[in-house]
Amino acid sequence: MSIEDLAPEILQNIFDQALPAKAILSVREPPLLIAHVSPRWREIAFDTSSFWTNFVIDAYTGATHRQLLDLWLERSGQKPLRFGLNVPYYGAMGSMHARIAPLIASLDSHAERWKEAELTIPNSLMVPLVASAHCQFPLLESLTLRSHGLIITATRGAVGAPPGSSLQRSPRSEQAFPRLRNLVLSGTLDILDKGILPWHKLLSLQSVGDNVDDALYFLEACSSLEYFQFFWSRPGSAITRARLPLFRSLRGLRITSQTLLPALNVPALTHLHLHSIWPRAGGPEPLETISSLVARSGCTESLESLIIDEGIICGRIDSLPRLLASLPALAHLSLKFDHDPLPGIMVMAPILEDVAYIPKLRSLILRGCHNDEDDSPILERLLDALKQRVQQPHPPLQRVEITVQAWMSRVMRPRSGRTAPEEEYYNRHQYMVPTTVVKEFQVFAAQSAPLEVRLVAARPIGGFRNRDGAFKYVNQVLVNTWGQAPLPNQCWCTFCLSRN
User: Fold this and answer.
1) Taking the alpha carbons of 137, 118, 274, 336 in that order, is the dihedral positive or negative?
2) Rounded to whole angstroms, what are the CA distances from 397 to 362, 391, 449?
3) Tens of pLDDT along 220-274?
4) Distance CA 79, CA 113 (A)
5) InterPro entries attached here (predicted)?
6) Strands 471-480 and 452-465, how do they pair?
7) Strand, coil or helix: what is 453?
8) End-to-end CA distance of the chain
9) What is the Cα–Cα distance from 428 to 233, expressed in whole angstroms?
10) Over the stretch 72-119, which tens digit does the pLDDT of each residue have?
């Protein structure tokens, strides 16, 4: 039997497995590539409308032919559409603008079928599309708007704006976006001045701005928000607006620094993710800012997850123990003491020794700087603390990841007195953890199953960040009983589990 003899339903399933998450509008990619193999495959591909509902138009690769888009829209029948449109920055001018406008018109004519849309286009094209009075988006649940130009600035009105301002509810937003609950914003978006979006119905808002006041501008109208993510380009920017109202539904918060925290009151907060906590001259200690948020909001019993990436934990050494002592419900803790003069592993060892601290801890991710083999007693003390945790009756601890990080200066060859090859300096992190300590961790991992243990030696790569903005590291895995490499900051709190 040849593949041509298979039933159409089986071929449909096979073709479906060959489709990418979002098909690229191209004759060289599925599903159109499948349609060019044989007349029978063409018939099956063209008659299966679900093959054509998930696509991306990428002008970066020159895929700007309206005929292709019209083919996709026609073959998708009446099914909901999930699509992306990516136009390079220079697309705001000249011939590219003229080539993209017809694509916008085709998408506009099917607005009633949009379910998930991701638009990276200039304002001159975005505003007429989304703000058009005749466009209705009855199925749209998730919308991403990335506009070319300068970062958003908070100059549109103050918190508590009077009636008639841009953030008031409008009949247009209620009618045009009845199901919109998830919004991602980035860039200069003039449409925000028109009050066309149903801010008060949003459950998830992710945005990028220039300063912390931008966050307040967005948040003031989002009374039903459950998740808020905000990255701004100037972490040191200060709040100039009044404190925000109470957010009773906000459970997940992911922001660039702690600057926004004094304006918030979040009694249901479950997941707090800070990408960095930078101390400010004359300001409170970063960890004290978190403690104040917890005390003010009364979320001690709801906060299950605390993640601090690239954190500089400075100030009094008892700040971290006092914070963790106030969080009895904490189940996931991820602390990365990057570039911190206070070694994080040394701080965490005595905290873990006392099982009264964070008694419900299920998942621990810890990264701290390590000087040399003289620090090995600190690692041994940390291991002893973990042993005490798992020896408790019905221990909740299920996974541990410890990353021993080298200082940048220890893995860079000095400018003078170069007596060793450069590679030898780069690889010094592999020998920071003594063999005896590695063996002790291996025995602990073997005897503590089903607890998952991962011990890593790492060196930073100076001057380079990944796509999420975090620093890159070269990792040498020393001990690993995880089935596979863990996802970054994979969290088991009830909020994150409910979203996955």
Assistant:
1) positive
2) 4, 10, 11
3) 888 899 999 988 766 556 777 666 789 999 999 999 878 888 889 999 999 999 9
4) 7
5) LRR_dom_sf
6) antiparallel
7) strand
8) 41
9) 34
10) 999 999 999 999 988 876 544 556 677 788 888 889 899 999 999 998
